[in-house]
Amino acid sequence: MSDSNGGARKGRNCRDHLFIVNGILNYVLKEKRPPIDLLIYDIETAFDKLGLREALNELWETGVQDDKFALLYELNKKLKILVKSTNFETERESVDEIVAQGGVFGGLKCSNVIDTIGKECLKSGENVFVYKNCVNVPPLAFVDDLFAISECGSQSVITNSFINAKVDQKNLRFGIDKEKGTAKKCRQIHVGRENQFCPELKADYAPIPKVTEDKYLGDMISYDGSISKTLKLRESKGTGAISQIMTILKMVSLGQHYMRMAILMRNTHFINKVLVNSEVWYPIKEDDFKKLEKLDESLLRQILQVNASTPIELLYLELGLIPLRDLVKCRRILFLHNILTRNENQLLFRFFKAQNRSPSQGDWSEIVKKDLSDLSLKFTFDEVKKFKYENFKNIVKKACKIYTFNRLLSVSYTHLRA
User: Which of 102, 197, 228, 355 is the 20 to 30 A CA-CA neighbour of 292?
Assistant: First the structure.
């Protein structure tokens, strides 16, 4: 499989694609490049319409040509399925030759079929976006979600026509809203200066709605490259997480374990909801974290039952916790290690190398260099690459704790002098 599709693959993550998308947005806007169109497609009921023989043919072409190929066919040749709801279950019925969505290999089969679109683009060098004049970025896919990037104008029309043709060739369909007559889960986002020749695109002969932002892999992708909409999304999730945590702490008698469980839930349930994908947010400023940190502050004050006049840095120091902005620094540095230890031919590695070689204002490569400097980690990228992940993780965590302690301590001294 190519780097176009990251779904159902070991060592791949939605952050890979988000890193590339954010990088292209920053490049186009900061370097004032020609305007682009972001084309977001969702294939409706892909697993229901995906034929087993079609999926296996693509696996054969990919290189699965041993005894496992026959086993994969036998596993899906005849399935007994049922429909389960909250109140009842239907009787099992036999269905022949389908790709089961809940099956172990279902996601991989679907990803492999959709990957043929990006694979063909990489092979031909057509319908790709050229990043910094050296990296070809094909249509990105995650299982059955497609994200294409092209220059606004005739190239958008060509790319959209190509994707429509390929999806139709696989006997798949885009979701169509019959009442409105539009492709309900497809979106077109125009990025950059206005273009009078910006085309009206279609999916399955239904117009694709033009929007200023849309959700992709959990983040909001905006026409202006801003992450403010994503932060608002995380803010609402964080508010819900706080409510759940405080409800549990009030309803369950934890006794002497109260504080330990409260901190555990903050570090897992709350942090993982508000900081998901945070390592690939850019361009970003420290002020962008203020609203999220207000939520964290609210949670800590409720846990400790202290009033608003208590300095927030004392709460972090007392509990030995790390503020959100410092956690993101730590996550970015660990993601740097993830990138540098990839195969040098992988798209993500080549994309980062191009960015580091010729950075634009606000690029991730410049932000992570500042993070390394802030945490006093005087390693070059080549030195970072040589570390084993667990060893590097321990070094970064220790450096982050020291940096956070010194920063919070200096803030507390400022309050004392005031």
Answer: 355
Ranking 148-157, 288-297, 334-343, 384-393 by mean pLDDT, the lowest is 288-297
Where do the DSSP E strands lie in 138-296?
140-142, 145-151, 176-177, 182-183, 187-191, 202-203, 206-207, 210-211, 213-216, 219-222
In Å, how far are 162, 168, 359, 361 from 282, measured between CA atoms? 30, 35, 13, 10
Other beta carbons less than 10 A from residue 118's beta carbon: 25
- The closest of 268, 283, 384, 411 to 327, measured between CA atoms, is 268
Answer for the pair 356, 303: CB distance below 8 angstroms, yes or no: no
pLDDT, tens digit, 9 for 90 and up, residues 178-227: 777 788 889 999 999 887 788 999 998 889 999 999 999 999 999 999 99
Q: Which residues contact 13 (CB under 8 A, 6 or more apart)?
A: 6
Based on the number of CB atoms within 10 Å of its own CB, is 141 exposed (0-12), middle (13-18) or buried (19 or more)?
buried
Q: Cα separation of 107 and 59, whole Å?
A: 13
Task: Using the structure block, give the residue that is written with the tokens 């899906």.
Answer: 76
Distances (CA, A) of 274 to 73, 234, 262, 326: 42, 5, 17, 14
Predicted model pTM? 0.91
